[in-house]
Amino acid sequence: MFNGRFSLFNVSVWVLTVYLVFHVPLIEMRVDDFEQQALAQAREQPPVSTEKPEPINQHLKLGKCFHMPRSKCPAEPNCTKVGSMSVFCCDLDSARLKEALASSITQNTTYLHVLNATIDELDVSQAMFRRLTSMAFTDGNIDKIVVARKESMDMNTTRQFPKHSSVACLNISNNNLTSAKLQPAIQRPYAYLFNLSVLDASANNLTEFPLSLVHSNRKISVDLSGNRYLPCKNFMKAMEENNSSLVTFLKYRDTYCALDISFNWFKDVRVVQIDHLRIQKEVLNESCRNIKPANINCTCIPERLEFSGDVITNLVAVDCSQRNLTSLPTNLPHNTVKLNVSYNNITSLQTVADDSTYEHLRQLILDHNDIPYILELEGTKFIDNFMLFSIAYNKLKTIHTYVLSNRFYKTGLALLIAGNYINCDCNTEKTLKPWLLENFKNIPDYKLLLCDDKVPVVDLVESQVCHTPRDWTDYIYYIIGLEVLILVLLISKVSYDYWVFKTAGYLPWPANKMPRLPCDWLCE
C-alpha cells in the first residue's frame, strides 16, 4: 500500500513539472510583451506637462538662437527651466539678473534666452555663461557689454569673450546697442568664440562691422539688419571672393549700410541696400577682365562709393604691380581713380595722355620702373587733378618742375620721388633745390632725391657745382675794373695838366713832350 501511494506521488510530481515547463515561459513572454507595449506607448505619448525645447542644431540651421515668445514669460520668479537644458527669463534688471540666473542655470544648461533685460553692464565672462551654446539677450536695454578685466604681465587688459567659450549662437538683437557699448573693434571681442556660427545683432545702432568674424576663416551667419549706419566698405570686404563663401547675411534684403560721400569740404551719408554692392562688384569684375594687355590678371577693388543722382558709382582701384609690363595698361575700368603699376619695366607715361580711361585717375603709383622723365604728363588731366603721384626708384635724370609747379597750391597732395639719381649741375642747385625746399610739405621724401654721386639734391652747395662759371665771371669783373681805373687816372691827369697850364702858363711833363695834334686848337 505504501508503494502504491509513493508511486502516485511521483506521478503527480512529474505531471506538475511537465506543466510548469510548458506554461511558465509563455506567461513570462506575455508579461514582457505587455511591458514593452507600455514603454512604447509611454514614448509615443509623453506627459503633457513636459515642454522640451527644439534642438539647438535645428535653430542654428534656421539661423537663429534658442528663443521663446513673450507669451511664455514666467511669473515670479522671472526665470524658468524649459526642459532640462534651457532657461528662459523675462523682465530682469541689473540687481536681479545674477541672482535669477544663478538659481536657474545648472551644469546641464546650454541654452539661455533673456527677454527685456535692463542691464547697466553685462559681463559675459562669468562662469555661468561659459557652458552655453546658445545665448540670447533680446528686446531690452543693455548699456554696455563688457568682459571682466584681467591684468596680465605686461599690464594690458583683455577685452574679449572668455577663452574656450562654447557659444555657437549669440543673439544680442534689439538692445539699443551702439559700437561704443560693445568692445572696440581693434580689440577683436569675438576672437575666442571659435564655435560661433550664428550672430544676431539686428535692430541696434551699431556703426562698426565685426571684421574679426570675417578674418576667422569659418562659416558664419550674421544678421545685421536694422543697423543702418554700418560702413559699406566693411560689407564689401566681407563680400570679397575669399570671404563670400564664409559669411552669410541673414535677412539680406533688409540689411543696409552707410555710404560716406565726401567732396572737398562737403560730406554726407547715404544709406543703401547691400545688394547694390553685390551688383557693382559683379560689374567691376567684368570690366577688370577687359584690361589690356590681355591675361595680365590685374586686381580691381572698389576704392570707395559715391552717388551720382540716385545711381551708386564704384570708384575703382586697379593693381597691376609685378606683371612684367613694359608699358602702362589700357582700357581700365570706368571711374578708375587709383592705379598701381609698381615693380614693372615701364619706360613711358604717354598712355596717361592718350587713353581716356585715365581721365578720372587721382593716384598713380609707378615705383620701381624705368621711367626717364615726366614731361609726357604735361597738360594731362591727371597732372591737373592728382592726389598721389609716386615715381620713386625709377631712372629720372631731370625733373621738369614747371610740369608740377601749378599743383602744390592745394594741401593733401603727395609727390614721391625717392631713389632717383639726377644729373646735377649749377642749374639743379639754382632751380630744383629751391623748388624742393619750397614744396617739402607735398614731397615728404624730398631729402632722398640724389645726384649721380649720391649727394642729396637739397645738400648741393653753390660753390661746388657752379665754380667754372664763377671763375670766368670774376676775371671779366677784374678787367672791367682795371679799365675803369685807367680811364679815371687819364681824366685826372688831363684835368691836372690843364689846370697847371692855365695857372702857370706851361705844360707839365709829359704833356710838354707830346707832339702837337690837329685838335689842340680846341684847348687853346
TrEMBL record:
<keyword id="KW-1133">Transmembrane helix</keyword>
<dbReference type="GO" id="GO:0005886">
    <property type="term" value="C:plasma membrane"/>
</dbReference>
<dbReference type="InterPro" id="IPR032675">
    <property type="entry name" value="LRR_dom_sf"/>
</dbReference>
<keyword id="KW-0812">Transmembrane</keyword>
<keyword id="KW-0472">Membrane</keyword>
<dbReference type="GO" id="GO:0007165">
    <property type="term" value="P:signal transduction"/>
</dbReference>
<dbReference type="GO" id="GO:0038023">
    <property type="term" value="F:signaling receptor activity"/>
</dbReference>
<feature type="transmembrane region" description="Helical">
    <location>
        <begin position="7"/>
        <end position="27"/>
    </location>
</feature>
<protein>
    <submittedName>
        <fullName>Protein halfway isoform X1</fullName>
    </submittedName>
</protein>
<keyword id="KW-0732">Signal</keyword>
